[in-house]
Structure to design on (651 residues):
C-alpha cells in the first residue's frame, strides 16, 4: 500500500510538444476522432483499422462474432500475414521499399547484416519451400528455438506464409521446457541453431534440442542454422543444415490465402499452475491490432529506425520486433547479445551508429543502466531518438525520469504500454501526439479497448480508486484460447465476472482516470518483465532428491522488479548448506532455465500452514520482503514457525 500511495503522489505531467503533435502519424484531432468513433462503435473503429493497416485477399463478412468467451474477428476474410509484412512492400505505390532495410541486425561479436524487404521476401519464400519439402502443411506446428538472429524472423514469416502455426521458444529455456512445449504443441519440425553469442562466448543450443526431441515422437525434422560454427552433432535423416536446404530452395512461394481465424502462433506463458499455457493467436485480428498499434503508438514513419529490444522468444518480440514493424514497412533493428558487451555502452553505441529513432524497452533494463551510470549514454550522440517506449512491468517514476532526461534528452515522449501475451498487442498506452504523460502511469486505453477497474463483485469504483484491471469488450488481438485446454481458458480469464476478461493485474485509476498498473495479483511473479509461475519453480525445486517441501514467493527488487525467494525444507538427514542451495538453483535451471533461478534460497524446518495444511504465502511474502509486522496470523497452525522463518537465511 505504501508503494501505491507514493506512486499516486506523482503529479508531474509532461504534455506532448507542439512540434511532435504537428508531425504525428495521428494528430491530436485524429486521436480525438478515433476515440469518438471507438467509443460509439468499437467494431466500426477496428474495421477501419483493418482496412487502413492490413491488406486482404478477400474482405470479411462480419467484423465480430462474439459468443462469450469465444470471439471471431473479420469472419470470412482471407489474408496472409507474410504477404502483409513483405509482398505488399514490393508492389504498387510501395514498390520503392524493395531496397529499404527491413531488418538491421547486429551480432554480439559486432558482425552485421542489413536485409532489405526484397531480400527478406526471397529468404522467407525459400524457407517456406524448405518447410514444405520437409512435409509441413497448413495447420502443422513448427517449433522455433533460436538466438536473436534474422533467421528467427524468417522462420516465423515462412510459417505464416504457408499457414503453419509457429511456437517460438525462448533460447534461454532449458531442454526440458523446450520438450514440454514441443510435445504440447505437437510440433513436426524444430528450427534451431548450433548456438549463439552471449557475454562474449559462443553458447550451444543444439544439444538442448537433441535432448528435447529424443523422446518427442511428433518431431520428424530439425533444421539447424549455422551461427557459431562450433562442432555440432547432426542426426542423419532427421537434422538438416539451414544453409544446405536453402541453397536448393526456390524463391517462389505464393502466400496461402488463409482464413482470418487461422492459427498464426502458439506462445507459452506461465500461469498459476506448474504447467505453462499455450496462448493461441490467430491471423486477421492479431495483425490488425499489432499493425495499428505499432503505427500509432510508436508514431512509425518510413524514415524511422525502430528498435524494440525484446527477444523473439517473448510476445513483445512477436508483435513489436517482427509482425507490427514489418507490417508497417518499417526498419526494425535486432541485436543478438547482452546490453553490456563488450562494454556498458553497447546499446548507446548501437543507437548512435544506426541512428535509432524509436526505442522500445523494459524498465528492468532502464534500471540496470541507471546503476551503471549516465557516463555511458553521455558518451554517445543519441539525438536521433525521437520516441521512447516501456513495457513488461510498472516503471517506477525515478527510472521514467532518467529515461526521459538521460536517454530522451527531455525531448522524446515516453509511451508506457500495458499489455500481455494474451492480449496480443498494446492495450493501455499514451498516444504520443496527445496524451500528457505522468511518470509511472500507462495512462489511457487505446481506442477500441474497453479497460476499467472492477471490484470482486464486478462493480466499477469511481476514480480515484483501486481494483482489478478488467477488459469489458473483446478486441481483435485477444487470445483465442489455450492450446488444448478449453476449460483452463474459461476458468483463468473469464470466470471472475460474467463475459469480462480478467488479466490478473491490480490497478489504480487516478483523478484523471489514468491507469497505474500495480502488478500481478495471482501466484505469478514478474521477474525482469517476464512471467514466472511460483508453482513452476516449486515443482522444479521439489524434484531435487534432497528436498522435502518448497514454497516460492516474490520479493520486491530494485533491479528485476521481483526477485524469486524459495523457502525450502530439506529431507531429513540432509544438511541445509551452500552446496544444497547451489544444487537447488541448478535444478531450477535444468527444469526451466536460468531466468527462474531463485535469488534467495532460505532453508527452514517447517513452512507456515493453516490448520487445513495450506501454505500461507502471504506470510512468506512478508518475510521475504523483510517485514517484521505480520498481517493476520489467526489461521496459522504453529506460531513458532514464523520466528524461525524470519531467522532463516541463505547459508
Ligand atoms: C504482464 C504480462 C506485454 C509484453 C511483456 C510482458 C505486466 C506488462 C506493463 C506495464 C505495468 C506491465 C503485467 C502483465 N506488464 N506491461 N506497462 N506496466 N505492468 O508480457 O509476460 O505476458 O506479462 O506484465 O503484470 O499482466 P507477459
Amino acid at each position: 500500500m505504501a508503494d501505491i500511495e507514493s506512486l499516486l503522489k506523482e503529479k508531474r505531467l509532461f504534455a506532448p510538444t507542439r512540434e511532435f503533435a504537428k508531425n504525428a502519424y495521428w494528430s491530436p484531432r485524429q486521436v480525438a476522432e478515433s476515440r469518438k468513433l471507438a467509443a460509439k462503435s468499437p467494431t466500426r473503429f477496428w474495421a477501419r483499422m483493418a482496412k487502413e493497416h492490413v491488406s486482404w485477399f478477400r474482405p470479411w463478412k462480419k467484423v465480430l462474432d462474439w459468443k462469450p468467451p469465444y470471439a471471431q474477428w473479420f469472419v470470412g476474410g482471407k489474408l496472409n500475414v507474410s504477404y502483409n509484412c513483405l509482398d505488399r512492400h514490393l508492389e504498387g505505390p510501395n514498390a520503392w521499399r524493395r531496397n529499404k532495410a527491413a531488418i538491421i541486425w547486429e551480432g554480439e561479436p559486432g558482425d552485421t547484416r542489413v536485409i532489405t524487404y526484397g531480400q527478406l521476401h526471397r529468404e522467407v519464400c525459400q524457407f517456406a519451400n524448405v518447410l514444405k519439402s520437409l512435409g509441413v502443411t497448413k495447420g502443422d506446428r513448427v517449433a522455433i528455438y533460436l538466438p536473436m538472429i534474422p533467421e528467427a524472423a524468417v522462420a516465423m514469416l515462412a510459417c505464416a506464409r504457408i499457414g503453419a502455426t509457429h511456437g517460438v521458444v525462448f533460447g534461454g529455456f532449458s531442454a526440458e521446457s523446450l520438450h514440454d512445449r514441443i510435445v504440447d504443441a505437437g510440433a513436426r519440425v524444430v528450427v534451431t541453431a548450433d548456438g549463439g553469442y552471449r557475454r562474449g562466448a559462443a553458447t550451444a543450443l543444439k544439444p538442448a534440442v537433441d535432448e528435447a526431441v529424443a523422446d518427442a515422437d511428433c518431431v520428424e525434422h530439425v533444421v539447424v542454422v549455422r551461427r557459431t560454427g562450433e562442432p555440432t552433432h547432426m542426426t542423419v535423416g532427421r537434422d538438416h543444415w539451414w544453409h544446405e536446404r536453402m541453397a536448393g530452395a526456390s524463391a517462389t512461394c505464393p502466400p496461402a490465402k488463409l482464413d482470418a481465424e487461422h492459427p498464426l502462433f502458439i506462445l507459452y506463458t506461465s500461469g498459476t499452475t506448474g504447467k505453462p499455457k499455450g496462448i493461441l493467436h490467430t491471423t486477421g485480428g492479431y495483425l490488425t491490432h499489432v499493425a495499428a498499434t505499432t503505427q500509432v503508438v510508436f508514431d512509425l514513419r518510413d524514415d524511422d529506425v525502430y528498435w524494440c529490444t525484446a527477444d523473439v522468444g517473448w510476445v513483445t518480440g512477436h508483435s513489436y520486433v517482427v509482425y507490427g514493424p514489418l507490417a508497417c514497412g518499417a526498419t526494425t533493428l535486432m541485436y543478438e547479445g547482452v546490453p553490456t558487451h563488450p562494454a556498458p555502452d553497447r546499446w548507446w553505441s548501437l543507437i548512435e551508429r544506426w541512428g535509432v529513432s524509436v526505442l522500445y524497452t523494459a524498465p528492468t533494463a532502464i534500471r540496470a543502466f541507471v546503476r551503471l551510470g549516465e557516463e555511458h549514454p553521455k558518451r554517445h550522440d543519441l539525438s536521433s531518438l525521437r520516441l521512447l517506449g516501456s513495457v513488461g512491468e510498472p516503471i517506477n517514476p525515478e527510472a521514467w525520469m532518467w529515461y526521459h532526461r538521460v536517454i530522451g534528452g527531455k525531448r522524446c515522449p515516453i509511451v508506457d504500454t500495458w499489455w500481455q501475451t494474451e492480449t496480443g498487442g498494446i492495450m493501455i498506452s499514451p498516444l504520443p501526439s496527445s496524451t500528457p504523460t505522468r511518470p509511472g502511469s500507462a495512462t489511457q486505453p487505446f481506442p477500441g479497448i474497453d479497460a476499467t477497474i472492477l471490484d470482486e463483485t464486478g462493480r466499477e469504483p469511481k476514480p480515484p480508486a483501486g481494483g482489478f484491471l478488467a477488459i469489458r469488450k473483446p478486441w481483435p488481438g485477444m487470445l483465442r484460447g489455450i492450446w488444448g485446454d478449453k476449460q483452463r481458458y474459461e476458468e483463468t480469464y473469464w470466470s471472475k465476472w460474467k463475459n469480462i476478461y480478467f488479466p490478473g493485474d491490480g490497478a489504480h485509476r487516478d483523478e484523471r482516470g489514468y491507469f497505474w498498473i500495480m502488478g500481478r495479483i495471482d501466484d505469478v511473479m514478474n521477474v525482469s518483465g517476464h512471467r514466472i509461475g511460483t508453482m513452476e519453480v516449486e515443482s522444479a525445486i521439489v524434484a531435487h532428491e534432497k528436498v522435502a517441501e518448497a514454497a516460492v514467493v516474490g520479493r520486491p527488487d530494485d533491479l528485476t522488479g521481483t526477485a524469486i525467494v524459495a523457502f525450502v525444507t530439506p529431507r531429513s538427514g540432509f544438511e541445509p548448506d551452500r552446496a544444497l542451495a547451489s544444487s537447488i538453483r541448478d535444478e531450477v535451471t535444468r527444469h526451466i532455465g536460468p531466468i527462474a533461478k531463485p535469488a534467495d534460497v532460505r532453508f527452514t524446518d517447517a513452512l507456515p500452514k493453516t490448520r487445513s495444511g495450506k501454505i500461507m504465502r502471504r506470510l512468506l511474502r512478508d518475510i521475504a520482503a523483510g517485514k517484521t509486522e505480520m498481517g493476520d496470523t489467526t489461521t496459522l497452525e504453529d506460531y513458532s514457525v514464523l520466528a524461525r522463518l524470519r531467522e532463516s537465511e541463505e547459508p
About this structure: The first strand starts at residue 62 and ends at 67. The mean pLDDT is 96. The radius of gyration is 24 Å.
